[in-house]
Amino acid sequence: TIIMSGTPAYGSTGGGLLIWDKKTRAMTVLGDKDVIPDQSTLSMVVLPGGNILAGTTTAPGTGGEKKAAEALLYVMDLAARRVIWKEAVLPGVQEYTDLQAGPGGLVYGLADRKLFFVYDPAKRTVLAKQDVEAELGHAAYHQGPRVFVEGPKGALYALFSKGIARVNAKSNTLELIARSPVRIDTGGDYFNGRIYFSSGSHLLSYVID
Q1: Residue 53: strand pairing partners
Q2: pLDDT tens, position by position, 151-186
Q3: Exposed site from 65, 148, 166, 195, fewest CB < 10 Å?
Q4: By CB neighbour count within 10 A (0-12 exposed, 13-18 middle, 19+ buried), where does 207 fall?
Q5: Entry pTM
């Protein structure tokens, strides 16, 4: 199953989801009123059992009117195509920038491009949170943020404007491992011992020791 989300057209508020079943070749389109009214889905991760945990953004389409006060996390029953739970687990934040599955069913997340958090979806509890803006700057952004990057041997990294951080699964914190000589603009991926990312029009990489 392929799930796509996006922000709405110019002047509009609230984006929906497109769900594509590869076996039946059937397409389902859900508007924001069927998901989270007046918000758009910015990040998603698959939970054990097949449901989807997703995070929203309150930002409207270009030229649109912001109507929601705070962003939400929600769980969608993928088989039923309906939201079965939603909550502002981090009160006041405006977007859940990225989500990443972690060990033991936990989920690592980033909110407002600066607040790292660890979430237990089974208990629906935030286990830890850390504001990293002062040390790391804001997270990589633009279309398809890809802030979190999976490396070898279960290592998980995150890309920020000032450098590359690694998730410490024992302390539930982000730790800077490499300060970048240039601003990291867009998120990246891992390949053959390197993490790739971009700065402006340039493609760069960092060698993982």
Answers
A1: 45, 75
A2: 999 999 999 999 999 999 999 999 999 999 999 999
A3: 65
A4: exposed
A5: 0.93
Work out the number of other CB atoms within 10 angstroms of the CB of residue 47. 16
Q: In what order do the strands lie in the sheet with 107-111?
A: 96-101, 107-111, 115-120, 125-131
Q: How far apart are CA 64 and CA 39, in angstroms?
A: 11
- What would the DSSP string read from start to end of the chain? -EEEE---STT-----EEEEETTTTEEEEE-GGGSSTT-EEEEEEEPTTS-EEEEEE---STT-----SS--EEEEETTTTEEEEEE-SSTT--BEEEEEE-GGG-EEEEETTTEEEEEETTTTEEEEEEE-HHHH-SBPBSSS---EEE-GGG-EEEEETTEEEEEETTTTEEEEEEE-SS---EEEEEETTEEEEEETTEEEEEE--
CA distance 179 to 54: 30
Six-digit token string for 71: 């962003």
Instruction: Count CA atoms closer than 13 A to 72's CA, side-chain side.
Output: 17
Query: Cα separation of 39 and 54, whole Å?
Result: 12
Q: How far apart are the first and last CA of the chain?
A: 36
